[in-house]
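[step 3/7] inverse_fold.run input=structure_tokens len=279
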């Protein structure tokens, strides 16, 4: 079983939004905890929003923490969009609320992880709680699981089970395991906002995990505009209706399902989003 601990950054802006973190098996996460705590150097926890950027202690702290996930064999995972690239397509539609940046990021994150997993592995995703968006995230994840009925090769284990086994939401600051995700999403936002800033420079150590490689995608304007409406919204809308009892099951016509799968294939951009992180 692989477990991904992820966090978000940028959910109330029209700029870049990321849901990202790290993925590994139980042994890798057990190895991570003492190494992370040692690198904290006496601090109880890492909270990126509380760091003092005029202090060289912050630079040294981030330099110590940055290599830890990679040293434990954890894999960076990321989904990213720029909300301003697609929000005009949703203006005045019910999809506007469903497809805020937080939810839109879930698709390239989760789908690309599932494609990367061997057919012997399953995935649990752990999010930090986001009360405003959690119901929409639940619908998005359930809509992805609904694809089991179509049995795409990349989606199922060899035993016929969905690779996406489960997901959970934990209170903020309740576990050490989400702290590298906090660092990672913060670093990504700084990189895409202004790669030459002090914050972007000091956050580089976490971006070097896996030699700057990861699983997921940061969607271009063209990619997000081609996929955002037809796939995520229609699947989520059907799942939302099912959840309130208006549908007995996720009843999407066969022609529509084929279209959704075709759209999903277009959504699977294997760009390894962090490729350009170290530039």
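[step 3/7] decode complete -> sequence:
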């Amino acid at each position: 079983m692989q477990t991904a601990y992820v966090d978000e950054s940028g959910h109330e802006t029209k700029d870049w939004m990321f849901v990202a973190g790290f993925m590994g098996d139980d042994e890798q996460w057990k190895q991570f905890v003492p190494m992370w705590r040692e690198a904290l150097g006496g601090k109880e926890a890492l909270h990126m929003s509380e760091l003092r950027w005029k202090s060289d202690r912050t630079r040294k702290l981030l330099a110590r923490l940055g290599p830890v996930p990679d040293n434990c064999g954890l894999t960076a995972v990321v989904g990213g969009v720029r909300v301003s690239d697609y929000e005009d397509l949703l203006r005045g539609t019910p999809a506007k609320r469903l497809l805020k940046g937080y939810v839109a990021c879930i698709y390239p994150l989760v789908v690309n992880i599932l494609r990367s997993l061997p057919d012997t592995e399953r995935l649990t995703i752990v999010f930090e709680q986001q009360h405003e968006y959690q119901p929409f995230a639940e619908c998005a994840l359930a809509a992805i699981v609904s694809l089991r009925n179509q049995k795409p090769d990349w989606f199922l284990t060899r035993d016929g089970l969905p690779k996406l086994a489960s997901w959970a939401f934990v209170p903020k600051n309740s576990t050490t395991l989400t702290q590298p995700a906090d660092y990672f999403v913060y670093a990504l936002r700084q990189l895409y906002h202004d790669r030459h800033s002090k914050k972007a420079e000091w956050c580089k150590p976490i971006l070097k995990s896996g030699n700057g490689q990861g699983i997921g995608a940061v969607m271009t304007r063209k990619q997000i505009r081609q996929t955002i409406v037809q796939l995520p919204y229609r699947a989520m809308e059907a799942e939302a209706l099912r959840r309130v009892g208006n549908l007995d099951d996720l009843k999407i016509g066969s022609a529509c399902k084929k279209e959704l799968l075709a759209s999903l294939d277009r959504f699977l951009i294997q760009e390894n989003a962090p490729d350009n992180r170290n530039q």
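[step 4/7] annotate
The two ends are 33 Å apart (CA to CA).
The mean pLDDT is 80.
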